[in-house]
Amino acid sequence: MKRRRARGRGRCRVALERGPLRRPAPGSSALAQPRLLKATNTLAEVAEIRGDYPRAARLHGEGLRMAEELSLWGEASLRLSGLGRITFLTGDLAAADEFHGRAMWMASGQSNKVAEHFAEVGLALSARRRGRFELVGSHLAKWVDWLRGVDGEPGLALVLAELGFAAEQRGDAGSALRLHLDGLTSAREIGDPRAVALAFEGLAGALSLAGDTAHAARLLGTATALRESVGAPLPPAERGDVDRITAALREVLGDEAFTAELERGTRMDPKNAL
Question: Does position 13 have pLDDT exceeding 60, yes or no?
Fold first, then answer.
């Protein structure tokens, strides 16, 4: 399973370098458009990871048009959520909420739980960015058991991370630690280094709040090294939590001690980081 995912990520990187997608010619195979629709989503996800938000938005928009033309409303909902993610990352929370709200309404009408979950995660992201931490639980807690029941894959790790960050920002170190440890288990099961890095970043916030600041700084270093190992460092728009936790740790440890612990963390084996 892990090898198949790795090959898939490799194909995504190659495809992204090939330039813009071309629509199938009139009269071409009926299978061509659904395949192209899938490709727009894959390439949009790679562009988002790289921080190329204009390209990601164009690809999601193209995918939305194709999904609507084909009356694939579940796919249309996912593409609306994709546009919501990009507008969220570029700072337009009102537009992000509109996209995600439309996507959730469309998915609910189709009884498409996958698309509905994806849309509601977007609403939770926006709620946390606005400081509405209580809404994060309202949006996400109900999805945890569902994701476990359907082998939630990356979705479960992200939901647990968001719940953990919200708990930390509410000042609940114990709940934050528990949620991020659960998220780390999920991330390790799917074998995604970026998901593991996210769990370490969350644990760094929880440990910082609990007073274990040196360990927290090391975990940030381990997370940074993990992301760099797969060529996916955090783009500036996704550094909010890491920058917030880093600032708190620098204030307690001082620049020199923080940097030393961070560097130590980059050399640690992720399997032994805790």
Answer: no
